[in-house]
Each structure stands twice: as C-alpha cells, then as structure tokens.
Design brief:
Blueprint: E1 3-4, E2 7-8, H1 24-32, H2 34-63, H3 67-96, H4 106-128, H5 135-165
Antiparallel strand pairs: 1-2
Helix pairs in contact: 1-3, 2-3, 2-5, 3-4, 4-5
C-alpha cells in the first residue's frame, strides 16, 4: 500500500487530490515568459513533422520505396525533438527554477529521456549503416521511437488539459 508522510494515499476517485500543475507564482512566470510561446509553436510543428515522417516510414514499409526520404524525415523529426527539448528545459527553468524533472513535469521529463534516447539511437543506426541494424530493423527502431513520442505527447496534452481546468476564474 502506498503511503505518504501523512498517511495512506486514497485510491483515485476516493478523495485523492492531484497537486495543481502550477502554483500561482509558477502560473505568472509561465504566462510572462516568451518560452511558453516558443513551446506553443514548436509542439504542433513537431507533431506535424511526426505525422509526415510516420507516413513516409509506412510508405517505405508498404512499398519498399522511399528509404532515403524516410530516413531524412526521421533525422528532421529528431532535430525538431532536440530543439523542443532544449527550449522546453529553458522554459522549465524559468517557470519552475530547474531545467528538468520539476515536480509538475517529472514523469513527462522521464518519458522524454526515453524518447530522446530512442531517437538518438535511430541517428546512430542510420549513420552507422547496415553495420548495426539492417534497413527494416532501423525502421522498426524509428517506429518504437515514434510510439514513445506519441505516449509523451499524450502526457503533455493531459497536463495541458489539467492546467486549463485549474485556471482561476
């Protein structure tokens, strides 16, 4: 049974209260920083790049054609991921006072580390050529990286929704 310092944690739906995403001070800092806008622009851009790249990967798997374009799309997706991760860490520092693993975004950041590791593994595999993985295995690695990204994107969307629901009236 899970315990906190003050006692037993009630099961969800039985009086369990989630910690607010932002304190009033964090919300003010979030709303005041330009990094919030940067994240708001990069997140949908990254999702669009993800969808386009996913379509190119599926096309390659279905037809065996378009290997170079599929690889290039994963490289672009990974570079956009690195950009949003660096700017997101800056945003987190401004809002929460630390670059990563702030209490409100701890699990999102944990999964983000997996996402980055898998995307980086894709780059290593492609730059190494067939010496590490054959083409099909490289594409399957990319799909694994993309699945982890989809989970992470869902985490952030959930947190965004919670933050909007917590907005003061």
């Amino acid at each position: 049974m899970s315990r906190t310092m003050t006692g037993v944690i009630p099961p969800a739906g039985q009086g369990a209260a989630l910690r607010p995403v932002y304190t009033p001070e964090e919300r003010v800092r979030r709303d005041a920083t330009r990094w919030t806008l940067v994240q708001g622009v990069l997140a949908p851009l990254q999702f669009a790049v993800f969808l386009a790249s996913l379509a190119l990967i599926v096309r390659y798997l279905a037809t065996g054609e378009g290997w170079a374009v599929a690889v290039a799309s994963v490289v672009v997706k990974t570079l956009v991921l690195y950009l949003i991760m660096v700017t997101g860490a800056i945003w987190e520092k401004v809002v929460f006072g630390q670059y990563l693993f702030a209490r409100s975004f701890f699990w999102e950041d944990m999964v983000s580390m997996l996402v980055i590791a898998l995307h980086t593994a894709c780059l290593v595999a492609w730059f190494a050529g067939d010496t590490l993985l054959d083409a099909r295995s490289q594409v399957m690695l990319a799909l694994t990286a993309y699945a982890s990204y989809a989970v992470n994107a869902a985490q952030f969307l959930y947190k965004l929704r919670r933050a909007r629901q917590e907005r003061p009236a």
